[in-house]
Amino acid sequence: MAYTVEQEIKRRRTFAIISHPDAGKTTLTEKFLLYGGQINLAGSVKGKATARHAVSDWMEIEKERGISVTSSVLQFEYDGYCINILDTPGHQDFSEDTYRTLMAADSAVMVIDASKGVEAQTRKLFKVCVMRHIPIFTFINKMDRDANDTFELLDDIENELGIATVPVNWPIGSGKEFKGVYDRNERTVRMFSDTQKGTKQGEERILSIDDPALKEEIGDEKYEQLMEELELLDGAGAEFNQDLVTKGELSPVFFGSALTNFGVETFLEHFLKMTYSPLPRMSDAGEISPFSEDFSAFVFKIQANMNKAHRDRVAFLRICSGTFDATKEYTHVQGGRKSKLSAPQQMMADERKIVDKAYAGDIIGVFDPGLYSIGDTFTSAKKTFKFEGIPTFAPEHFARVRQIDTMKRKQFMKGITQIAQEGAIQIFQEYNTGMEEIIVGVVGVLQFDVLKYRLNNEYNVEIGLENLPYEHIRWIEGDYDINKISGTSDMKKIKDLKDRPLLLFVNSWSVGMVQDRNEGLVLSEFGRD
Ligand code: GDP
């Protein structure tokens, strides 16, 4: 079917999928592809050990470690929609890229393990979603296992994350007794059939809540329990409000089991209706409409090739307006140059393919000749503009870098600065020490290994790292004089390469204490240009 440009943009949905490792993000993504008809047999796309590497085989470390260091993007079609899923690495050693991926998404799907509730990594990623005010949808997964009490799960989300919830459907039983979900809007129950452990699309039978067959099928006890729970819910729970959902203040909640496919398709259907096609994005020339004639995009991630033989980099662009056409030239605003974007590529299910056209909402990877930086804007507009910058996210691990061969000072500085520019690490200096003492901050500890490996492999420089006990970093908003700050014994004053002052803390309670002690001091978890 041929779509107009406007239709192409309107049918796009671009979302990130976030969770704590093992909550079922990969499995759920596979099932989306299954329902999208992209794959025949779920599990054939992203089996953890094999397929993820097929998508991002640029990084040797990734192969060695068998975990995904980088985030990947997948596109698939469902019911006339064109959907872009931004995957956020699930391993604990995630990086700043994981946060930045959320800058490219228009909404987020949060996958929660029904027997665990909100976990650490979800909490971290959630903060970024809140900062961006994007809609957040909750999929409570693994209902085929014994789950926590449903009301407790909702309380946990509200208390831990501070967002109101509204269940769109409600589970009937859990574990072996997970029979189906009740759709509150339609007042119907979807009963699930065997999906042979999720390898085929299950049959879903829909029964009205008033249908006597329902009581017969789930038994008197479960039926009574369901009625009680629904009454409680109607009495005490929040009502669905699309406006609040859109602002990211109310999270619609769904229950299901990605493994057995239960509840996946109904989630997808509701989700697509409750989210929007790409919305305008802020730039220094005001809001840019996705339907603008001009193409525009920004870089949200740069991935260096770890393979020495191909030392190229790929820049990932989120298209914000218009159509990308591979034959046309675009202005790289920060670089002040116009050129074609070479080797544009997109991930489709399990393969990378070269694209010649893409639309607002899409993500493309393009060859980076070493000139692009995170946050850069590309556009076809004659009067160029820049999209709002991408904030710097707080690293949680810090180390002092020691150069083993001090003769290679120049290479060392070049390497470490370039790697920092790509956004894998952040570098800082202590006051009064000069460039001899560099402190590196990373979001996930694996980045220390990546830094060591890359400096050695690409710049021929060997380093040693001395871990520092700091875990919290804060940017200082406004012009507060750093010399005037009265600190705590575990606090350290540092600056970044642009000479902006920052504070490091060992303990989180010290952050609050310093804030209290210094009137007018505003500390932030995000750094902005
Ligand atoms: P990720 O780390 O969040 O991407 O999690 P995965 O999708 O890799 O899932 C982690 C483990 O949980 C795997 O062994 C999955 O088979 C299993 N799993 C995922 N979804 C479900 C589910 O709905 N029910 C059950 N019982 N297991 C699941």
From TrEMBL:
Transmembrane segments: none annotated. One of its GO terms (cellular component) is cytosol. InterPro entries: EF-G-like_DII (IPR053905), EFG_III/V (IPR035647), G_TR_CS (IPR031157), P-loop_NTPase (IPR027417), PrfC (IPR004548), RF3_C (IPR032090), RF3_dom_3_sf (IPR038467), RF3_GTP-bd (IPR041732). Pfam families: EF-G_D2, GTP_EFTU, RF3_C. The keyword Metal-binding does not apply. Residues 10-279 form the Tr-type G domain. Coiled coil: none annotated. It is found in: Cytoplasm. Gene3D superfamilies: P-loop containing nucleotide triphosphate hydrolases, Peptide chain release factor 3, domain III, Translation factors. This is Peptide chain release factor 3. The gene is prfC.
